[in-house]
Amino acid sequence: MERVFVYGTLKRGERNHALVAPYLHRVLPGRVLGYRLFHLEGGGRPYPYPAMVPGEGWVEGEVLFLDPEALPLLDELEEEGVEYRRVRVRAETPEGPLEAWAYLYLGDLEGARPLPSGSWGGYP
To answer: What are 108's strand-pairing partners?
Structure first.
């Protein structure tokens, strides 16, 4: 079982959640400290999406418990190594801290809108 911290289009109710739904066993709310969140539009995607980068603050999201077969699909979606890098983070959850994978943004943040609330969602 793999744990993946998601904070944008892979959360429940968001546009890419269906990609991971067949591999999903359970979900916990969570947040990671030591990161900042930005809202991006344009770039290589036809829809808005978030970017998590190291910095002062926290990012709210969900910890997905997934079959290991989901990781290659997520790596492809996130363009692992090009647009995002998959790294280990410590997620705070109601069940205590958990180590999980997360995708950190590698691109330019020029024109990105900071989200000081640490939360992304509800975008078309």
So the answer is: none
pTM for the structure as a whole: 0.94
**CA nearest 87: which of 118, 56, 52, 40?**
52
Dihedral in degrees, nearest 10, Cα atoms 63, 121, 77, 54: -70
Active site residues: 78
Q: What is the pLDDT at residue 122?
A: 60
Write phi, then psi, for 31 (nearest 5 degrees): -150, 155
Q: What is the pLDDT of residue 104?
A: 98
Average pLDDT across the chain, whole number: 94
CATH homologous superfamily for 2-114? Gamma-glutamyl cyclotransferase-like (3.10.490.10)
The residues facing 20 across adjacent strands are none
